[in-house]
Amino acid sequence: MIFKGLDHDRLSSANEAPSELRLGLIALAILAVFGLFILRLFQLQILEGADLADRSLRNSVRTVRLEAPRGDIVDREGRVLATSRPAFRVQVIANDLRDGDATLSVLGELLGRDSTEIEKQVGRPTGRRRFQPVVVEGDLGYEARARIEAHRYALPGVVTDMVPRRDYVERQSAAHLLGTIGQIDAQQLGQAAFSGYRAGDVIGKYGLEFGLESHLRGRTGGRNLVVDVAGQEIDVIEEVAPVPGGRLVLTLDLDLQRAAEEAFRAKGPGEAERMGALVAIDPRNGDVLAMVSRPAYDPNLFAGGIDASAWASLTGDAWHPLRNRAISGQYPPGSTYKPFVALAALSEGKIDAETTVFCPGYYRLGRRVYRCWKRSGHGEVNLAAALRDSCDVFFYRVGVELGVDTIASFARRFGLGARTGVSLQGEAAGLVPTRAWKERVRGESWIKGETVSAAIGQGYDLVTPIQLANAYAALAHGGERFPPRLVQRLESWDGEVVADNPTGESEQAGVDPAFLDQVREGLIAVVEGTPGMPGTEQSPPTRPVQGTGARARVTGLSVAGKTGTSQVVRLDVVESMGDQEIPIRYRDHALFAAYAPVEAPEIAVAVVVEHAGQGGGTVAAPIAREVIAKWFEKKRARELEAEREGVGQQAADRSVSESEGR
To answer: Does pLDDT of 620 surpass 80?
Structure first.
């Protein structure tokens, strides 16, 4: 046999040795694998257990905050000025990114942006911040939105949602009054007034958005979502709907606001938009009907977070478009100040309606000569003619007799030199100088020559447009002055009245009505024109004379007002230059203040056109005319509508009566 003679025991031992070795190696491999399992289990359960448990929970259930729309802001007729619209937002949750570089690169292509810019926005958050979404786009257009939605399931960590975004429907219109919104800052988060806010919340920053933040804000809601490991939504567990913010009904009239802003716009090729401010007030209750500040800005720039270039453009503009000139611009009132000087002179017995002053074109005080704006002079003028023609010499003489303290006292009775209390931050106080003021602030004594300047609204005198409008409203309303009111009432989001904002308590100037009538006669003459100086038995009255404010006339309506021109620099700085050679910054401001109708005033308007280089009658009066004309055009339209409705109702009543008779 072929196997005969083999040692079977030795053969068996040789075969068993490799098997034992293999078994030992297998056992070691099994032990090593189990050891690795145990080590990994120790790492997952002991070392990283808490973090992974939190991560697991957040990967399965995610809480999403639902922002509340801010309340609408509407004009007195319910037309929307500011509202909220849906905006498509893109966010990145760092914890859910699987391949961050690749995902953000693709996201950048879809958004048409540099991916490195998005990477900077997202950063490399740690801890709980990994689970917090970072907004990379706050308001996507339709095309970009479609691209994102088409690829969203291939972009783990990228989340999209709809959020309310502020929309200022009229763009720049009433921008300074409405204000702006923005993210709450760290300093505000530390204040008790903002205890319910958190980082990233949007709040009002300026204007009514700031002043009525608590009413406009609304109440946030929330939604608990089930999400998969890629961060995609699977189901909604529960949801608490947000409550929209309250509605704000203003005293503003949108038609008047538009008319005023249109009047400031350039009228011809190459002409720049006028700078300055306008305020229109109802003298009967202090309602602000229009408020304009130019140049302006579009508050929509701030709605989603203003970008650096837009912010730099606004803040770097030499003409300060963010500044609300209507309440914070301070200007010498010029000749619009003269009615208050006239009231002081009448009340103190320095003049009466028939007192005359001869104007040769200048006034001499000591060795100094003060010119009238009309170099040839106005001749013999009484109070009405002095106001109509804006004769400086008449008021130089009257002012010196009164003294600066008496002038200041009467100006302050009409609210000049003090904040009106309008519900907007940043209101300036203006300045009505006195002897005590100069000694306290400048450490110098008052000199008589400064009274000459003060008597025509120059020198240290400063007023804001809202002060001037309110002062003329008081002139129109028998010396009664109301605090300006911007808000009629507060409503809930569904229209229920939450709170009325009643007319504020008025103050009386305490001026004899007869003196007010005499001054108002002169203000009527400024616009409507009057006969010249009264005649005598020896000389008949002169022919009718046109006033300096004739361009404010409105057909079929009686208007009273006063023009003004205020110097920006001393006359000797520019008198050697031609009109076109004077730098814009050195050109005079043009002012006009008015009210109408004379018989029963319903509207008072103050206009300041900065650096116009022309008189108030030429530049500012036509702007006021547009606003006044629009107000009464609307009134006539309402009356005609009421008449038509009345006629229709009468016809319906007759028809019913005839039917019953049959």
So the answer is: yes
